[in-house]
């Protein structure tokens, strides 16, 4: 009997006829470097889009399912995709509008092999010069983003995405600060089973802080090692999502989290191991991240001195 793929990637999508085809191109063999076609499967779960999303005809590694009717939160769809996954390493991209850098999958697979209970992730970015919560106020929209992507040549070299993006709010502390959530989370099947996937009590459209909660629980699980891939990333396409369009603000999502967990949300403070190469195109993000880390260290030094 043929063995399954080494890696399964679950992608949840809702009403993303523009964004999802690019997302899938960025996960395909050929664009993704260092992988054989049989190494990876991609599982798309259409979370009840009003007009059903169309499976790609030319990507045999993509499996497709649809939930209809579907809850407003993507948590159930993500869990369904995880359940279907055949790989031992399972990655979750809960927002189907995210483009992956070309080494994300191979580097995540290699990083996962550094330990039995690794939590592997990469920083998150938004396309354009501002986070998408702010960009719409500045007149950034789908048409401008389409022009940006066409001009940067990302399909020939996906690392060019670093040159036309800014760190997302969840990664706003830079590479060397704690991430608020993971937009590309890779865990072994046993750890997914232990965590029980996403908590489906997070029922707000977009999931509220369901993904934040998952990342924190993964980092806090006994014996896990956090591995961050600073030279890789996911890059969010603007599409009017529940959080990035400000239909649901932090206060409402955080109140929902507190109601479920009976405590405020705080990013996990687990110190990561950094793994992988840094492409030249990402150096400006490396420089900014270093400046942020130095400033944090200096503030901490001053506070320690004040206490002393």
Main-sheet strand order equals 3-2-1-4-9
Number of helices: 9
- Give the end-to-end Cα distance, rounded to a whole number of Å: 66 Å
Structural class of the helices, strands and pairings?
A: alpha/beta
Computed CA radius of gyration, to the nearest angstrom: 19 Å
The largest sheet, given as strand count, sense and whether it forms a barrel, is: 5 strands, mixed
Low-confidence parts lasting 5 or more residues at pLDDT below 50? none
Explain what you see:
- It is a single chain.
- Helix content is about 30%, strand content about 15%.
- The protein is built from nine helices and twelve strands.
- The termini are far apart.
- The chain has helices at about 20-25, 75-85, 105-110, 130-135, 140-150, 190-195, 210-220, 250-260, 285-305, and strands at about 5-15, 40-45, 60-65, 90-95, 100, 120, 125, 165, 185-190, 225-230, 235, 275.
- The chain has a five-stranded mixed sheet with strand order 3-2-1-4-9, with helices on both faces. A four-stranded mixed sheet has the order 5-11-7-8. Strands 6-10-12 form a three-stranded parallel sheet, with helices on one face.
- By secondary structure, the protein is of the alpha/beta class.
- It is globular, with a radius of gyration of 19 Å.
């Amino acid at each position: 009997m043929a063995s399954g793929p080494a890696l399964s990637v679950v992608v949840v999508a809702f009403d993303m006829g523009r964004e999802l085809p690019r997302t899938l191109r960025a996960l395909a063999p050929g664009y993704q470097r260092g992988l054989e076609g049989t190494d990876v499967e991609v599982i798309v779960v259409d979370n009840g889009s009003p007009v059903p999303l169309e499976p790609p005809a030319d990507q045999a590694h993509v499996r497709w399912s649809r939930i209809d009717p579907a809850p407003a939160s993507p948590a159930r769809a993500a869990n369904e995709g995880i359940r279907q996954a055949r790989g031992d390493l399972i990655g979750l991209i809960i927002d189907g509008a995210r483009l992956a850098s070309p080494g994300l999958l191979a580097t995540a697979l290699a990083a996962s092999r550094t330990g039995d209970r690794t939590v592997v992730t990469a920083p998150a970015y938004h396309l354009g010069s501002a986070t998408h919560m702010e960009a719409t106020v500045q007149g950034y929209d789908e048409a401008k983003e389409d022009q940006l992507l066409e001009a940067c040549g990302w399909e020939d070299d996906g690392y060019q995405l670093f040159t036309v993006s800014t760190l997302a709010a969840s990664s706003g502390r830079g590479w060397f600060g704690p991430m608020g959530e993971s937009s590309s989370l890779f865990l072994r099947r046993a750890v997914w089973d232990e965590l029980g996937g996403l908590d489906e009590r997070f029922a707000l459209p977009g999931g509220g802080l369901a993904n934040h909660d998952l990342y924190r629980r993964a980092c806090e699980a006994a014996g896990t090692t956090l591995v961050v891939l600073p030279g890789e990333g996911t890059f969010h396409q603007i599409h009017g999502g529940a959080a990035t369009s400000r239909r649901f603000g932090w206060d409402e999502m955080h109140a929902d989290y507190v109601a479920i967990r009976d405590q405020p949300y705080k990013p996990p403070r687990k110190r990561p191991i950094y793994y992988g190469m840094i492409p030249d195109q990402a150096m400006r993000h490396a420089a900014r991240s270093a400046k942020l880390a130095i400033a944090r260290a200096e503030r901490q030094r001053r506070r320690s001195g004040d206490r002393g």
